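Reopening this ticket.

The earlier resolution said the output was attached, but the attachment link was broken on my side. Pasting everything inline this time so it's all in one place.
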Amino acid sequence: MTPARRAGSRRAGPPHDGASAPPSTVAARPPIEEGGAASFPSPALGAPYPDAFYDRDPRLVARELLGAVLECRTPDGVASGRIVETEAYLGPHDPACHAVAGRTARTWHLHGAPGIAYVYRIYGMHWCFNAVTLPEGVGSAVLVRAVEPVEGLALMRRRRSARGVTLRHDRDLTNGPGKLAEALGIDGRLDGVRLDGTPNDAGALTLRAGAPVADAGVIVTPRIGITRAADWPLRYLVADSAWLSRTPAAFPRTPY
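Inline output:
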């Protein structure tokens, strides 16, 4: 997420002064906090995740969504991709999280129940997809930053090309949060939709269990494109994926 632009009342979490927290509070392998078990039995391959999967620390959900398949169904067709990059946003005590602004019209669904979509726009042009975590009212989520196309590759190419984008490689289709949202057909009409495939008038989003990614194949870095809590290690990557967004050269890379 980009930092919230205006302050407001906070619905949950301790106060903060905008400074980075001690590393122990944002460790790559977090202790279990509110909202459920530290580990979650993986559903059958291809099955949607139940709400309880999301009702946990967003750091755990961000790590365990690596390898999952994000599917979007719209009247144009079906497009899906294997998640290879995520970022965790912890709630109102995280200076980079939109929850610092409180529950506004824009962040309404960020503060919603676990297992729904929070879709917001940045720079007035790009949509970003998040999975809401922890109980209603907290305001935490996982941003999906990159996917590897699984289904609907031709549809993804058409959608991206329709904006006049010149694609040198297919990996440029979905190697960023705005890119993947455009390629999959995710926009603000899907804000608040359940992530189990329950449709609304615009379409449906499903997060399905995919082939698990071993801890040895995961790298953790700081989050990209933020200025607050910029050193917190909350970005999770499939280390050998060719579909990742670019990591700044100065970023530390830590095995999970």
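Reporter confirms the inline version is readable. The domain at 45-255 is CATH 3.10.300.10 (3-methyladenine DNA Glycosylase; Chain A). The CA atoms of residues 171 and 242 lie 7 Å apart.
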